[in-house]
Structure formats: structure tokens, C-alpha cells
């Protein structure tokens, strides 16, 4: 298959290119220099010239605090961009994959969210991503919306310059102590495994919303503890609360997702548990 990866140089996009390339697909890597998803003329011209069979839209405006300040840009990329890609994907009869977020939920359920649970985003970022979900599903008939959670990979996030793992390693080397919150619970997931599972999902012919996160759940502090233990970091790691880190952005305190629809598909390999996935990543990248 010919696969167009939008946001190919990002944390998720890099692994999507690698995993889809491993299975013999022809990969067309598209960065912001190649395509502007917030402009329909750019999307139309680039995708029609490529004629991909699968479009992976991993481009996003995902700096959560900046989204609060740059609302128009957040919606232009995360919602308007999704609409632009979906319209062209429909014309090309392409499989259209849009990556969304666990943040579309408000966390009040306090049990793992399944795909048909009612979203209630708390901030501009997650609201713009939910709008992107609806536009994707309603404008491209062969669409898959894939919600992911707390991603980390070997390539740093372009907008943030790091991910949680690399940030923890950096802070441990630079600070006398590191504090991490115990009251945000989620399921951090490596981008390599998301990408690997996306290959089979794109080939399955299934459509709709899918959750694709590691199994289990943890607080950011519990996640950090495994980093400390695996890498034998000596800097003190201390528990704290989100109250200690003043932020104008509302975030869900609980955003664990269950991969119900993905697991129900025949022949799909289940996602790894978050702890084993993290240890594997750390050994590959740091040891």
C-alpha cells in the first residue's frame, strides 16, 4: 500500500513511518514543510498528487497550555485540519486515520473509559481534538479515530521538545530532587507499539473510534518510579499533588482507557501492560 504519514517527523509520526515501512508499504513522509493541513488548497494538492491508499494524520497542535492562548490555531489544525484531510481522503477512497486523545474525557467516571462513553473535554486542546474526531468520522467513510494516552517515543515531541521519560531523565541529572504528581492517573503508551498495532488496524477494514493505549493504569508518580528503578537513578523522587503545580488548564485526573473495540476485532494482538512496555523502552533507549 501507499501510505501518507502527515507529521512524519514527530514523535508518533516517526514510528508510524518505521512500522508501516517494515511491512512493505510505500511510505510518503509529509512534514509541515510539505503540507499545511490547516489549508485545504495545500491538503488537496499534496494528497491528490500522491494518491495514497492510507492517510495517517499524526499532525496536531498539542501543546495544551498554548492551545488555551492560541484557540484559533488549535481549532484550525486539530479540527479544521482533520476536516480538510477527511474531505480529500473521501474523494480518494483512502483509509483515513486520525489520532485523538484520552483528554476528551473529564475523568469523573473513575473507571476505564470505553469507546462509546460520552466525551466531555475540559480544555481547548481536547475540545479541538474531539471536534476533529467528529469531522473525521462524518466526512470520510473509511475513517479510524484512534485515541491515545501519555505517549512517549525515541524522537522527542516537536512542540514540547521532550516527552515524560526524557524529561524525567533530564531532571534527574540536573535537579537535587524531582517531584511527580500522584493524583493524575492514566496509561502512558509507547508510540512504537501504537504504530505497530495501527498497521493491522488499517488493514482490517474496521471504521469508527478505537482506544489504543497500554494495559493497566498508573499515576505519573508510579510511572516515574519504574524509570528510577530501571535506570537506577540516584536523585530523590518525591510524590506531590497537582495543587503544587499551578496551571490555568483544566485536565482530567483520571483518563484511563479500555481498548474494547480494538480487542474485539479478530486476530488483533493485545497491547502490552504499561510497566513491561516502559521497561522494554528504557532498556532499548537508555541501557
Order of helices and strands: EHEHEHHEHEEHEEEHEEHEHH
**Arithmetic mean of pLDDT:** 96
- Specify Rg, calculated over alpha carbons: 18 Å
Overall morphology: globular
Distance between the termini: 36 Å
Question: Structural class, from secondary structure content?
Answer: alpha/beta
Report on this model:
With 287 residues, this protein is of the alpha/beta class. The chain has ten helices and twelve strands. 47% of the residues are buried.
What descriptors fit this protein?
single chain, 287 residues, alpha/beta, six-stranded parallel beta sheet, two-stranded parallel sheet, 42% helix, 16% strand
Please describe the topology of this protein.
Layout: E1 2-6, H1 11-22, E2 26-30, H2 40-50, E3 54-57, H3 64-69, H4 71-92, E4 95-101, H5 124-139, E5 143-148, E6 151-152, H6 164-174, E7 178-181, E8 185-186, E9 189-190, H7 191-203, E10 208-211, E11 218-219, H8 220-231, E12 237-240, H9 260-264, H10 274-285
Parallel strand pairs: 1-2, 1-3, 3-4, 4-5, 5-10, 6-9, 7-12
Antiparallel strand pairs: 8-11
Helix pairs in contact: 1-7, 2-4, 4-5, 8-10
Summary?
With 287 residues, this protein is an alpha/beta fold.
Amino acid at each position: 500500500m501507499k501510505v501518507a504519514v502527515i507529521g512524519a517527523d514527530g514523535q508518533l509520526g516517526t514510528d508510524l513511518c518505521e512500522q508501516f515501512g517494515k511491512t512493505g508499504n510505500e511510505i510518503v513522509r509529509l512534514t509541515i514543510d510539505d503540507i499545511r493541513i490547516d489549508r485545504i488548497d495545500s491538503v488537496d494538492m499534496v494528497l491528490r498528487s500522491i494518491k495514497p491508499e492510507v492517510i495517517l494524520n499524526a499532525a496536531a497542535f498539542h501543546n495544551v497550555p498554548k492551545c488555551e492562548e492560541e484557540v484559533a490555531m488549535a481549532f484550525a489544525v486539530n479540527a479544521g485540519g482533520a476536516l480538510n484531510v477527511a474531505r480529500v481522503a473521501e474523494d480518494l477512497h483512502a483509509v483515513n486515520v486520525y489520532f485523538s486523545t484520552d483528554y476528551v474525557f473529564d475523568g469523573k467516571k473513575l473507571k476505564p473509559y470505553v469507546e462509546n462513553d460520552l466525551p466531555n473535554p475540559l480544555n481547548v486542546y481536547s475540545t479541538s481534538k474531539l471536534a476533529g474526531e467528529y469531522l473525521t468520522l462524518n466526512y470520510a467513510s473509511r475513517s479510524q479515530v484512534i485515541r491515545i494516552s501519555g505517549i512517549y517515543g525515541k524522537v522527542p515531541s516537536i512542540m514540547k521538545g521532550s516527552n515524560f521519560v526524557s524529561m524525567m531523565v533530564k531532571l534527574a541529572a540536573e535537579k537535587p530532587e524531582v517531584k511527580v504528581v500522584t493524583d493524575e492517573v492514566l496509561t502512558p503508551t509507547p508510540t512504537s507499539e501504537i504504530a505497530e498495532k495501527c498497521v493491522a488496524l488499517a488493514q482490517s477494514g474496521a471504521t469508527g473510534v478505537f482506544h489504543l493505549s497500554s494495559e493497566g493504569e498508573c499515576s505519573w508518580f508510579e510511572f516515574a518510579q519504574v524509570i528510577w528503578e530501571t535506570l537506577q537513578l540516584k536523585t530523590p523522587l518525591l510524590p506531590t499533588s497537582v495543587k503544587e503545580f499551578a496551571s490555568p488548564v483544566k485536565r482530567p485526573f483520571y483518563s484511563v482507557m479500555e481498548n474494547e473495540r480494538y480487542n474485539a476485532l479478530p486476530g488483533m494482538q493485545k497491547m502490552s501492560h504499561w510497566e513491561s512496555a516502559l521497561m522494554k523502552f528504557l532498556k532499548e533507549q537508555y541501557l
